[in-house]
């Protein structure tokens, strides 16, 4: 088998997928809330090393039908480089039907529509994408300064290329003072894009990064308690009016309450579940 470069992360939905590290670390790696790849320098792995890993794992899991390309944002690779990996994976896994990866907002925006269409034609099917917040001011505070326009353009470009997008928003990211701005802007952004999946996570700060994170808010940051997190979730869902059917989940380990539904169909049910839990517990 192959020796992964640790730490290794994958989305919850990729639990049964083959994982191949096309890159190591994250090409941006500056977001103040994230510690996933703080111990790694970003590296583009040599094609021969990636192919070698594919060869090794295909001997044992030749019938695999899902592949996740790690690490943090494999879409940072040149389109030519990425296609070579995807082509080789489909060659070695004859039953492969889905290839997915993480993509930063910056990298998705930088890819042209033609490049995304080409990647889709080669078998890239799903992109995991962190919106985090729809507020540019909040994004600047968490050291991820990308404009709403660029996120909207990138996401809708991916939709036009027939790529599925699984997007995430982080509850509690803006603290108590900026909660309204964060949630309103995030819902507004979601309502302007075509995505397939939407998930909410809850802010979890590592002890060694907490002070740095708070400092960017000029000491105005107060963490939300569990009730406030659920109330923020209610506010977020109540404002969502997506352009298309969106599969919604809050099944990440960080979430207080796991939720599942399809928007807009299950919107009222999700809000009722949240209200019931708040009344029952708090």
> Helix-strand pattern, N to C?
EEEHEHEHHEHHEHEHHEEH
- The name CATH uses for the topology is TIM Barrel
Distance separating the two termini: 49 Å
- Which spans have pLDDT < 50 for at least 5 consecutive residues? none
Count of separate structural domains? 1
Mean pLDDT: 95
Put the structure in a nutshell:
This protein is of the alpha/beta class.
Write the layout of secondary structure elements.
Blueprint: E1 18-21, E2 23-24, E3 43-44, H1 47-58, E4 66-70, H2 79-92, E5 98-103, H3 105-110, H4 113-122, E6 124-132, H5 136-141, H6 148-160, E7 164-171, H7 179-190, E8 197-202, H8 207-215, H9 226-239, E9 246-249, E10 260-263, H10 267-281
Parallel strand pairs: 1-4, 4-5, 5-6, 6-7, 7-8, 8-9
Antiparallel strand pairs: 2-3, 9-10
Describe the structure.
The structure is a single chain. With 282 residues, the chain is an alpha/beta fold. The protein has one domain (15-281): Alpha-Beta Barrel (TIM Barrel), CATH 3.20.20. The chain is built from ten helices and ten strands. The chain has helices spanning 47-58, 79-92, 105-110, 113-122, 136-141, 148-160, 179-190, 207-215, 226-239, 267-281; strands at residues 18-21, 23-24, 43-44, 66-70, 98-103, 124-132, 164-171, 197-202, 246-249, 260-263. The protein has an eight-stranded mixed sheet with strand order 1-4-5-6-7-8-9-10. A two-stranded antiparallel ribbon has the order 2-3. Helix 1 (47-58) packs parallel to helix 2 (79-92) and helix 7 runs parallel beside helix 9 (226-239). It is globular and about 55 Å long. The protein starts with 17 loop residues before the first strand and ends with a helix.
